[in-house]
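Quick start: read one record
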Amino acid sequence: MTTFGQLPRLAGIVATIARYRLDAIIDGFEPPRALRLLRAVLPKPSADVAALPRGARLRAALIDAGPIFVKFGQILSTRRDLLPADVADELALLQDRVPPFPGEQARAAVEAALGAPVASAFANFDTTPLASASIAQVHAARLRTGEEVVVKVLRPGIQQRIRADIALLRALGELAQRWHPAADKIRPRDIVAEIETTLENELDLQREAANASLLKRNFAAGDDVYIPKVYWDQTRESVLTLERVRGIAVDDLKALDAAGIDRVALAEKGVRLFYTQVFRDNFFHADAHPGNIWVDPARKQNPRFIALDFGIVGSLPDADQFWLAENFMALFDRDYRRIAELHVAAGWIPKTARIDELEAAVRTVCEPYFTRPLSEISLGEVVAKLFSVARRYQLTVQPQLILLQKTLLNIEGVGRLLHPQIDIWAVARPVLAGILRKRYGVRHAWKQVRKRLPEWLAAVPDLPDLVHSTLQRAAAGELTLQAQTAALEQNERLARMQRRQLAVLPLAAASLVSAALLYAFDTRGALWAHVPVSAWIALAVSAITFFIAWRRAR
C-alpha cells in the first residue's frame, strides 16, 4: 500500500486523539502555536468523554486506535517511575481488561479451528471469558479426560486490522527512510520489519504453544518459574489450549502481602530469571508485563512465578549476545573505555570513531547516575541513554536489541513494584558473571572444539581443490588483476602451509581427537578443573603441535 493510501487510517488516529483530547492530559504541557490554533477549532469532547479522568481517556483512546496502540499502553503501564499514578493504574487495565467479544463467536472459532464440535474436545466450555486482551481472549474449559484448561482464541478479524496498522507503519517507515537525515543509522524499515515479525508471530497461537513448550523445558530443572502445560491435540494456529493455573497477579501487592509472599525474594528472583533467559538460554519471554506474570500463592518463603502469554519471545544472534553481555559487565564495573571499545568492536559504531571522545560521552551519561544509591539506578534507563548518546557517533540501530531493551524495562518495572529499594545491579552482576564464566570459559570452548572437530577435519581434503579452483578462475579472467594477485599469494601461502604443516598436523589432530576421547571416557583417572588430567596432557600436546604448525606456516 502506498503512503497516500494510508492517509485515511492516519486521519482516523488523529481523530481519535482529538476525540479524547489527549493534548490536554499532560500536566504543564504547552503546545506550539500551530497546535494551539488547531486546538481552538477542534470540537469539545462529548460529555461522556469530558467526565472521564485523564488516565481513562488515554486508555479508551488506545483501545479505539487498535491493538498496536494497546501494546504500547501495556508497556507504558510498567513504567510507574515515568507516569503519574492515576495514569499508570488505568493503563494497567489494558493488560487483560480490553472489552471482550461475544463468547459464542469464540465457540464458533474453536469449532472452525478444530474442525469438530466443541463437545468432542471439551467436556464443557465457558462462553464467558476469563480475560480479554488486545489480540485474543481466554475461556475456561474442561477436557473430556477431566483436566482443567484455558482456551485462548484470536479476536475475529484481528489479522486484517493488525496488517492494516503494519501497512501504515511501513508507509511511515518508507517516508523516514527517504527523508530522515540519519535513516541509514536508525534503519526505520528494519525496525518496522521487526515489529511486523513480532506481531505476526503473536497471531500464530501454535507458535506460542511451541514457545511455552521450550520455556518449560529450559526451566524444568528449577523451581523459580512455572510454565503451564500445552495440550497439542486442542491447539491450532488460531486456538491455544493450556493447563489452567491459578495465582496472584504480580502487581496485586495487597494480595501478595496477605498470602505471606516474600516480595523481596520474589523481586530478586525476577531479575535473575531475566538474565538467565537472555544469556544462558538465549530465549526470553519478551512480554513480561504484570498481566502476564502471576505468583504461586502456595510458595511463601521461596516464591515462584507463573508465566503466561508466550506470543512474544526474543533471542539474539550469538555475536550480539556476547557483545551485550560484555557491555553489561563493563557498565557494572564503570569501565567507560571498555564500553566505548566494545561498541566499536561489535560494529555498532564505525571504526573511524575516536575512542577517547566516545569514552568521554559515555562517562558524561553514566556518572550522574552513579551519584545516586545503586538501588535507585535503572539499568534499562542507563542502557537506553547509552544508545541515545551513541547515535551521535553514527550508531547503527540494532532492531533485535529493541525487544530486549523493552523487556529489561518491563522486568525492572515489576522488580521495583515488588521491592522499591531493590539493588538491581547487585542482583544482576553475579548472575551474569556466572553465566559468562560457563558460556565463554575454557570448558565451553573445549566443548565447541569437540563439536566442530569433525567438520574441520572433513574440510581439510578440500583445500587442494579450492586452490585449484581459484587458479582456474584466475586463468579464465574471472578475477581482477588485484584479486588474481591476492589469490595467487593466498594459494602460494596455502601450498607452503600445507608442505610445512604436513609433518605435524596429523599429530596435532590425533592429539586433539585423543583429548576428546579421554575427556569423554576416562572416568577413573585424576581430575583437574573437572577434566581428566590425561585429557589435559593430550590437549597440551595438540596445542604445542598446532603452534608449531602455525609457526611453520608463517
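Residues 158-179 form the longest helix (22 residues).
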